Predict the 3D structure of the following.
Amino acid sequence: MSLITRFLNRRFYYFLIILLIKSIVARDVVFGNGFSWLTLLTEIPFIVAVFCLIEFFAGKRKMLYYLIVNVLFTALYFSILMYYKYYGIIVTTDALSQADKVTEVGESTYSLMDPYYLLIFLDIIVIAVVLLLPKFKKARLSADLRPRRSKVWMAAFALSVVVCLVNVWPNRASMNENKQAEEMGLLDYEVYNIIDKMMENEPITPIDQITQAKIDEIKGIAEPASPNYFGAAKGKNVIILQMESYQDFLIGLKVGGVEITPNMNKLIQEATHFTHFYAMAGQGTTSDAEYVVNTSLYVPKHKAATDVNVDKVLPSLPKVMKESGYSTATFHTNSVEFWNRTELYSSLGWDKYYDQKFYGDEDHLAFGSSDEVLYAKTLPELVKMDQADKPFYAQVISMSAHHPYNLPSSKDRIELPAEFKADSLVTRYLKAQNYADYALGQFIDGLKSSGLWDDSIVLMYGDHQGLPLYSLDDEEKALMKEMLGTEYGHTEMFNIPLIMHVPGVNQPLVNDKVGGQIDILPTVANLVGASLKNQIHFGEDLLNQSSELIPMRHFLPSGSVINNENLYVPGIDYEDGTNHKVVDGSETTEGGVTEDEYNRALELLHLSDSYVQQLPLK
């Protein structure tokens, strides 16, 4: 009997070993516990059950089915690896449905890949080639490919299914998707997720029961009778700048004596810097940040807002501003079709949008024209809007400092110490943000020289994290610790800046109140004197409220929440979760987010989801 024939006859065992090795690789990257008895108990039963079905029913095409299963499971393990490296959670079918976006952000996706990940495809290539070679035809024909309908296969199948159910059932109530996947097994988790989604019948709170008073009560806040700064900038323009991948630690940072963001460092000497402000984007990242800021609603679970919510008539900041007599426009050098922004902008009610058709492809970086081009071409449009007979609200979205931060050498403006290797993600990030800061400085100068600065509220914030903790290797994490003087963890990763310039209003240069992107809408509305009495919003006015409760979604497990002092990440349930201080990111066992706050945060997410689902269609 030839070697190939023996392999074909023992296909069950060989393919089981192959997929076990791949599951070990995936678990080691995601959970840090590659091979263990838990791996055998959670990953093998599902594979065995599928192989038993093939042996029981398949005949001459048996090897083809083994190959198909091997390819599908391998692709899933690979997707789990890649998705976790950026998002920090386990990929689901909802995320896999966005695979078409990979072609748009290919460079960003490929940069997350460790070369050894590709080795999990090696066996597929070798086996396929060998089985297709004519010289192995005799071996293929002599292999035993008859169906095996014995009691042994039936018993093995039944036992495997029982073990899968035992893995799944006790863990189905866990809020933490990563813990669920670890305890259930990666394959069990994916199947459970599909079935759970099909059977999902979560009750919806009727829209007439979703009131602002109820939301405020859950958040633990009360609307002041006479809010501070109400209408303090009435009639002023509003310019909101969304800065790509911008994290708060960049401000004031020096590396080797070099300022990374010198223009921002100057700016915070004359504008208020909110130092504990957090990103709230989901799967749609940049587009989700636009959604949250302009609606004061939470992103949906496991999906981009632009995929599920933009068929609705959304309450929004552009609509609030238009009711107050403002014209509105949004500026972005990428194509408006990407992330379904055509529908997003329609739902938000922008008067006008400027995209790649307006900016062209001049000085192309990342997904469109550079920030220099963005600002140079946007400024004249803002001046035109300012010359009209009414004020304007404009959102400007930068993009040059986009992951994986591969700027051309012509944009390189700083030299970093030798320990910052050129191919390091950290090095590329710092240089990209230094360039973005250079372009920002030109824009601020233009706003000032045109008179817009003194006649406009200007808000600047980061759209989402730039250095995912899950993407950094040990050397890069050590470099971050040396650079920041503290461990780089979740609080540092989600901490983005909010810079607020309000002409004629004196505020402290530093504001340490905890806030999130969802708070921008009510804060701006208060400053321009716009009423939100008839508009549901889940954020709060940062200039009047002192407490905060920020449910986090997508980049952290469900149930994660930030309050005034801590970022909480649940375990299997509330009791085994962890708290991280917002001041320095250190883990703490004292105080922390209470179970009541945890439950209230989940209720807020539920109310937001219920509210959007019941909004009228466009």
In short: The mean pLDDT is 90. The longest strand covers residues 237-243. The chain has two domains: 3-198, 229-546. The two ends are 68 Å apart (CA to CA).
